[in-house]
Amino acid sequence: MERRLVITVDGPAGSGKSTVSKILAEKVSYMYLDTGLLYRAVAWRTMQLGISIADDEAMRTVCNGITLPLETDGEMRVLIEGEDVSGDLRTEKIGMLASSVSAIPAVREALLPLQRSAGRQGGIVAEGRDMGTVVFPDSDVKFFLDADVDERARRRHLQLIENGQDTDRGEVKRGLEVRDHQDTTREIAPLKPASDSIVIDTTAIDIDGVVEKMVKVVKEYAQ
To answer: What pLDDT score does 1 carry?
Structure first.
C-alpha cells in the first residue's frame, strides 16, 4: 500500500507553484492546500473592517474566524465567519497586503494550527512560502519552484487579464519585486528553499513538464 505523503511546494509569486500544485494534487488524488489564500483572507477581512495590521489582538480575532473545509471539489475554499470568500481574494492589492500580513508573528501563530491540522493524515500538497521550512519541516517531499522575475511578471499579468483585471505589466513586475523583497527579508519565516528541497527553475519549462518531474519524484517516495 502506498504511503500518504505530505508534499510541500514553496516559491515566489508567479513561479507557477499554485497551478502545478493543483494539478499535482489531482494526479496523485491528494488534497490541495493553498496557504497563501489564508493570508489573503486575513488581508481581505482586515481591509473590510478597517483594522490596523499593527493591532495584534484584532488580527488574532480575524484569524480565529477563519475555517478551512477539507472536503472540497478540487478547489480550496476559505470561510470567514462561515462565509465563503475564496472568490474575492485574487487581486494584486490584497496580494500586497497579504505579504505584509504574513510577516506578523501573531497572524502566523494563529494560522499555524489550522494549516498543520489539514496535513495531519497525509495525502496533501501544501503550497506557500514556508511550507517546507516552518509549517511542515518534516514533510516527505519538498519542492521549491522559482523563475526569472520577467517571466513571473508575464505569467501574473496574463493571469490577471484572464480574471478580468486591467493591469500594466510593468506595474505587475514592480509589485512582484516588492513582494520578493518583503518575503525574503522578513524576520519571521523568510522565503527560502529548505535545505532538503528539490529546486526546480520553471522559467523555460511548461506546466506539463514541471508536473511530470514532480509526479515522478512523488511516486518514488510513495513506494
So the answer is: 42
